[in-house]
Design goal:
This protein folds into 2 domains: 20-133, Cobalt-precorrin-4 Transmethylase, domain 1 (3-Layer(aba) Sandwich); 144-257, 2-Layer Sandwich (Methyltransferase, Cobalt-precorrin-4 Transmethylase, Domain 2), CATH 3.30.950. Helices cover 25% and strands 20% of the residues. It has helices spanning 35-43, 55-58, 81-93, 112-121, 134-142, 172-175, 191-200, 230-237, 254-257, and strands at residues 20-24, 46-49, 66-69, 72-73, 76-77, 98-102, 126-129, 154-159, 180-185, 208-213, 221-226, 243-247. The protein starts with 19 loop residues before the first strand and ends in a 25-residue tail after the last helix. One of its GO terms (molecular function) is uroporphyrin-III C-methyltransferase activity. Belongs to the precorrin methyltransferase family. This is uroporphyrinogen-III C-methyltransferase.
Length: 282
Amino acid sequence: MPTRRVSYELAEAPLAPGEVAIVGAGPGDPGLLTLRALSLLEQADCLVFDRLVSRDVLALANPRARRFYVGKASRCHALTQDETNALLVRLAGEGQRVVRLKGGDPFIFGRGGEEGEVLIAHDIPFRVVPGITSAQGCAAYGGFPLTHRDHAQSVTFVTGHAKGDGELVLDWGALAAAHHTAVFYMGLANAETISRQLQGHGLPASHPVALVERGTTPQQRRVITCLAELVETIAREGLKPPTLIVVGEVVRLADSLAQPAPKAASFAEGETLALVGERMAL
């Protein structure tokens, strides 16, 4: 049975020349894009995208849009943040309609606020489109909620990445509170600190932990462990970024609520685009 594209109308002005849209691409599955994000992708003259934006999301953008890869991995940046800021300013100054595409949500550990400040300083109009952050996507596709009346009445999203090479300094007492879920982004390198500090602030060694690698994509892996075995589990399973660390009693629901693994998106021949960025002199 042929698929039917659902028509839609959004009550917003089209992307104007010289305007930047800071858009959340979600955690990977293109089906989790908002309609507004899809509309702006179709309008873009230039696409500035991060490392965690999936190939299938990029395939939905205007095929004539120039693509600029500005991805960042640990100690390996295609462009520095200052260079990315300058690129956005330059493209907008050329009258391009620019979509700045970020994995997850641009205002949750996405540095969207910093880029917005730069655009304001240069009198460049911009809009922000939220996306599903990886904590939401990984939990739903991993088979457990982030909150539950019987297990967790609050949830905290935490960056597990220390600035520079320093110690990860967090409010560990608050994160170890009862009936609470803590979600660590970019936390693999500091897993030992996370395990030690949470146990030191009162959580038992048996407290459940979920590790979700490449959540919502066909490559998703979900591993259930506990605080005492967190570091050993990461090493044994060979988990790599991006992997989310979820600590909380809600993880015990994973087996009963688990969903089928995500399937690869399917596009017509020639539609899928390679992750090739265009780097130009700033």
